[in-house]
Write a structure and sequence with these properties.
By secondary structure, the chain is mainly alpha-helical. It contains six helices and no strands. The chain has helices spanning 2-20, 24-36, 38-67, 70-114, 117-127, 130-172. The chain starts with a helix and ends in a 21-residue tail after the last helix.
Length: 193
């Protein structure tokens, strides 16, 4: 019985050791994938670091509008924006550098663990494809073009709804109307005869 337990334990240890070791080829393929994804990794780090600053700025702008004298609001808003920009200039590069540094032990480890060498080779080849790279480089411009056209095409339908939402929220908060004419009252449904 003891021999069976020791044999099972030995087999389990060998299987675990084999799983823990990754071939150099898998490591190299994971590194290629990470290199191709570096801009996305840096963007994720930027977003994580900038999110608190954006939230703080949003809250500050509300406070500025409520508590700062009108003649100082613009100057204080610029100062707050300057503080947020300084924060971003100091923290974004640090976070991006650290994200790129730890990516091999996080994303890379998961790639090596969950994908076969052949799958990693396929992923690396796809991500390094010149047509895909060109597509990804042009994606922001394509998204901007779509966004501009969408705004132009839907402005007349959406702006009145935004104004109605602002008025409704303002009314609920007890704020005075912002010089906009109140939305027309809905007509009662016609009586059926």
């Amino acid at each position: 019985m003891l021999k069976k337990s020791l044999l099972s334990l030995s087999l389990l240890a060998v299987a675990f050791a084999a799983q823990a070791q990754t071939s150099p080829a898998k490591k190299e393929l994971a590194a290629r994938i990470l290199k191709s994804q570096q801009p996305a990794i840096e963007a994720m780090a930027r977003g994580l670091v900038e999110r608190p600053a954006l939230e703080i700025m949003g809250g500050a702008m509300q406070v500025i509008g409520q508590r700062v004298p009108k003649e100082r609001q613009e100057a204080v808003a610029r100062e707050v924006q300057g503080d947020a920009q300084k924060y971003a200039q100091e923290t974004v590069p640090m976070a991006q550098q650290r994200a790129v540094a730890i990516a091999p032990t996080t994303i890379g480890a998961l790639l090596e663990e969950r994908f076969t060498e052949d799958e990693l080779r396929q992923i690396a080849s796809a991500l390094e494809n010149p047509a895909l790279i060109k597509f990804q480089n042009n994606l922001p411009e394509m998204q901007n073009a779509l966004g501009e056209k969408l705004v132009a095409d839907t402005r007349s339908a959406i702006e009145p709804k935004v104004q109605a939402l602002e008025a409704s929220v303002g009314k609920r908060l007890g704020l005075p109307a912002q010089g906009a004419a109140p939305a027309p009252a809905a007509k009662p449904p016609a009586k059926k005869q």
